[in-house]
Every structure is written in C-alpha cells, then in structure tokens.
Amino acid sequence: MPSSPLVIAGFIRGLSVRDVEACLADALGSEAALSKSTVSRICEAIKDEFETWSGRDLSGLKLDYLFLDGSNFKFHAGASSEPVLAAWGITTDGKPVLVGLAPGSSESHDAWAEFLREMTGRGLDPPLLVISDGAPGLIGAAEVVLAQSLRQRCLIHRSRNILAKVPVAAQAEVKTAFWKLFDEDGLEPGQGAVDTVRARMAAFYKHYGTSYPAAVKCLMADVESLTVYLRFPKQHWKRIRHSNFIERTFGETRRRVKVIGRLPGERSCLSLVWAVLDRASRGWRGVQQTPATTRLLAELRHQLLDPPVRINPRARDKKTAAAQRNRLAG
C-alpha cells in the first residue's frame, strides 16, 4: 500500500478523508480513492506503532518536569466521550517528549494511579516536578505514586477558577491583580521568591477578602502548590508554572480526529490520538539548559530524590555497642 505514509501524514495534519483523496489524486489518479478497508488498514498500521510505543522501556528517560492532563474523545458511536490520560515531559537535556497515553474509564484517583504505576513499572523515574490542573483524582494519584516529586498547580487553571467567583464587571481588575502576584521582576529562584509571592498573596487576601471571599478562598486553598515552581531555574518559570499548552494541543487533536468519520473502534481512535500528539510534541518548545540551571536542578534532585539516609539513633547505638563488644572480645 504505497500511499499509506501519505494518507497517515494527511490524517495527522488534520485532513479529512475527502481532503486526503484530493491530495492523492494528482499523484495516483484513479488509485487515489480510499475505501473503508483502506482506512481500516491504515489505522491498523498506526495502532501497531502505538502499541510498540506504549510498551517501550522508560528506564532511560530522565525527566526534570512531567505534565499530566486528560481530555475526552468519542471512542464509540452513540456513546459518551471517554477520557484519554496523557503525560508529557521535559528531559534533563531540556527536550520535550510525549511520555505516556492511555484510555481511562474516568479521571478518578484509581485511573490516574494505574496510569502512573504502569509507566513507573516500565522504568520511569520520578521527575523533579509534576505540573497539572487541580483535578482531585489526578493530584491524589500523583502524590501517592510520585511521592518524591514536587507538585505545581497550573496557574492558568487557578486563575480561571478564581475569576469564576468574581462578578463580570470586576474580573479584569482581579485578573490583573492575580497575575501581578507572580511578577518575576527582582525575584531569584529559591525560598526568598516563594516567601515574596506568598506575602503578595496575603496582601491580595487582605484587599479582596471582604469583597470576593469565595475567590480569595480559592486562591489561598492551595498556596504551596502555586509557588513551587519558584524553586526552579528562573529561565524555566513561564514554561513550568502552567499546563495550558497541553490543553491547546488536546483541542487541536480533537479537531483532527473529528474530521475522520470512519474510525473503526476504540483502539484505532486512541492510536490516531497518539499519532497526532506525538507529532505535535516534536514541535513543542523545551527549556534552555545552562551550567547554572543544570547545577540548580542537580541540587534539587539531590534534595528530593537522593536525600541523605537518616540513621535511626537506636540502631546506631546498637551498632556502636556491638562494635565495642567485638573489640573487647578480641
């Protein structure tokens, strides 16, 4: 099937079956018509690639940052949309990579935990930072399965949550005030930056607490996870303080999958979602790594993932006593 690579590339770029046929017509003439069986075989080829990718060894993949999100797609005709769970990362070299993709019956704690455990079971080491929205199931699963990693809550999602609790007439003002909290001018990575932003949040609370108590409560409910990114290299802050690029990519993926009206079932749909996301991820912007950023990330990695072993005082005393007994016996 010599036209298969062209057809797959066309689908991934978002062309409909009719569009693909038109593009092939100039090159293949009457052979350009795509039958239902042809589309099915093409989807099978994508599915085989996806299954190989899904089972690959992840032990060689070292991540500083891991982004998690889910989005709904229609796998079955006449059925409700079902979530696809996805994981993207930025490697220690600063390169973006699509890490994992799987269907989920829901975005529950169990679904996310199974997804994360499947990846760690294939050798994925904990990243330094997990970035996600505020979905309780996702957060709970990440805190259990990736307990050593820090967690950053997406600032864009939190901004939306806050503005939803503010009258329309005041939303522009509150939105501006919210983003001023995270103004990076004069800040340097570390606890000092965290303390400064938290002090700004306290002032925000004092200023708007009476007028918009629900919005302020929303901000203060998860202060710690909103400021974690400030411990990381400043050059990376605007990249790692939100997961909005995932949301945009998912939206584009839904559009591209929707134009193909003859997907034969769940596995082919998931495979095509993977093909679109995999292609999109190659065009993502990673982060710049310099000797200074590498040094700071290495320090964080040592603190989080390779902490010094704490010696149990009682065990140490027993060990010392045993050594003394051995010396006396000798």
Question: Can you give a write-up of this model?
Answer:
This protein has 330 residues and is of the alpha/beta class. The protein folds into 2 domains: 58-152 and 243-307, Nucleotidyltransferase, domain 5, CATH 3.30.420; 155-242. It has 15 helices and 5 strands. Strands 3-2-1-4-5 form a 5-stranded mixed beta sheet, sandwiched between helices. A hairpin with a 4-residue loop joins strand 2 and strand 3. Helix 1 (4-12) runs antiparallel to helix 2, helix 3 (36-54) packs across helix 13 (266-282) and helix 12 packs across helix 13 (266-282). The longest helix has 19 residues, at 36-54. It is globular. The N and C termini lie far apart (81 Å).
CATH superfamily of the largest domain: Ribonuclease H-like superfamily/Ribonuclease H
Low-confidence runs (pLDDT<50, min 5 residues)?
1-6, 23-28
Q: The CATH topology of the largest domain, please?
A: Nucleotidyltransferase, domain 5
What count of domains describes the coordinates?
Answer: 2
Radius of gyration: 25 Å
Distance, first to last CA: 81 Å
Name of the CATH first level of the largest domain: Alpha Beta
Q: What coarse outline follows from CA principal-axis ratios?
A: globular
- Provide mean pLDDT, rounded: 81
> How many helical stretches?
15
For the sheet with most strands, the description reads: 5 strands, mixed
What proportion of the residues is helical, as a percent range? 55-70%
* Proportion of beta-strand residues: 5-15%
Order of strands, widest sheet: 3-2-1-4-5
Strand tally is 5
The arrangement of helices and strands along the chain is HHHEEEHEHEHHHHHHHHHH
